[in-house]
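Tutorial handout. Part one gives the primary structure; part two gives the three-dimensional structure as tokens.
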Amino acid sequence: TIISQEDYQAASAAAHIECNTKMIDTQPLVNLSGTTAISAAFHNGNLIISNVGDSRAILGYKYEEDGAPPETESGPQSRKLLAVPLSQDQTPWRKDERERIINAGGRVMTIDQVESQGTNPENTDDSGNGENADTAVLGNRILGANGDIDENGDPPRVWLSTKNIPGASFTRSLGDSIANRVGVNGTPETFTKQITKEDQCLVLASDGVFEFLPNQDIIDICAENYGNPLEACNKIVDTSYSKWLEYEDRTDDITVIVMFIRHDLIE
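Part two.
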């Protein structure tokens, strides 16, 4: 018997939470270290995404342009793939995540605000008035949506109430035991989508891939290398690496998985 969608999501959540708990209880090196986690499961005709942190899952969705010729056997070259986000970055840019961290006793500030001994942006706006502070200062940004990327280089971060650690730019993770004290936890957000014939490819990637590359750019690379996931991965990694060196003198983690969906095997 195939378990229900709800039971699968509950099992996924329980597994993430247990993993996080065991990491914190048994691994002393995770005080200021941890990992994000993004996973995909094909379950009873559905695609189920579980997400902890700011890695990302995006779908390449096929749509036909007006007057486009029929699809060929080698793939949808005559069609475009639209990037559809299947996860939401869990960062202090998000109003709901920010409020959750603050309610757990944490502070949300940028590094510049910490270094200048500025006030918590949650407690003051540009005029010094606490009312509507998060809208005036941080708003409610979901990075990755509509091509939104953060090029500022100084994002809001999570800090303890009385110490300037850990400075996490994410609000959920596995490990990170110090950040765990103020609400950074391993509880995943899950999203379920029924698989359709328009779903052509799936990309799972770490946050470093998306730092300077919008979702659509990633899917465009997949479309250009349709049916060759290794080449698509190589091109995504190379492009992301080059973008990092345009903006920084370093790179973050750049890890990517590309899957092209074989509907003939699913059926």
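Part three, for discussion. The chain is about 30% helix and 20% strand. Residues 5-26 form the longest helix (22 residues).
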